[in-house]
Automatic annotation (TrEMBL):
GO terms for molecular function: serine-type endopeptidase activity. SMART domains: Tryp_SPc (SM00020). Pfam families: Trypsin (PF00089). Keywords: Disulfide bond, Hydrolase, Protease, Serine protease. The keyword Hydrolase applies. Residues 14-257 form the Peptidase S1 domain. This is Peptidase S1 domain-containing protein. SUPFAM superfamilies: Trypsin-like serine proteases. PANTHER family: PROTEASE, SERINE 47, TRANSMEMBRANE PROTEASE SERINE. GO terms for biological process: proteolysis. InterPro entries: Peptidase_S1_PA, Peptidase_S1_PA_chymotrypsin, Peptidase_S1A, Trypsin_dom, TRYPSIN_HIS, TRYPSIN_SER.
Amino acid sequence: VSTVCGKPKVVGKVYGGQNAEAGQWPWQASVLYKSLHLCGAVLIDTHWLVSAAHCFFNKSRDLENYRVLLGNTQLYQQTQHTQKMSVNRIITHPDFEKFHPFGSDIAMLQLHLPVNFTSYIVPICLPFPDMQLLSNASCWITGWGMLTEDVSLTPPFNLQEGKVILIENMYCNILYKQSIGNSNIHSVHKDMVCAGDFTTGKSICKGDSGGPLVCYHHSSWVLVGLASWGLDCRHPAYPSIYTRVPYFANWINETKRLTPLPDPASTPLVTGSESQHLRAAGSPGPCTALIPTQTWLLLPF
């Protein structure tokens, strides 16, 4: 994995907010729930992906309901490059939302069979725990989420990309407090990273949850964040908040080390103790406005 990670074989000419080229972001995956796109996810090796814990809140524990789609740029248009994989385990972080909203918003998905790396399916490089995220670094976000709060992605559902910069948490909190008051309910904490683009307004939106925030570092793309939450997509001037992956690098590596690989001859496990925390604040479906409009600004994407 370390020799191929973060090195796509397809390098397109990229501009913020446009369709991504096939194979340009080969670690991008879609988590399908009952055959529909639920959230983004990121391939990290032959058996594992990471995503956002809140994607699995109030969802079935029956792993037959889940599939992972790899190698696709157009979401529901499978090609010879597509690999559709069964899920063997879903493990959410034990501290998810234990200390603050959207805290430890990270989950790991173990595949039942190993994925084959191709020109269109390549894992992302994981950061070291002590990796320093440089403010104003140029990074990229990708996903199949909504284009704005009111505009959905339309067929052929092409993967979208946008260039963003990392923003210091302190500055991000100042921006958010100006918008939503002095409440600490939705503060940006040390396990989160803030990113956006004040000139183009690129941000994540509903359906992008769990997708990657990647930065180019020492000749490879490195996973810096996972799409987590933010203000609604009508406010493009505000940055979005991502799970800070370096903060959880040790947990990811330890989970991989302690979790046995599945027996290919067996059927996928029904998640047991690992998924007792499957109560993350899951992605709302279309038109799921269950709370007053002013609070909708803070619903997960």
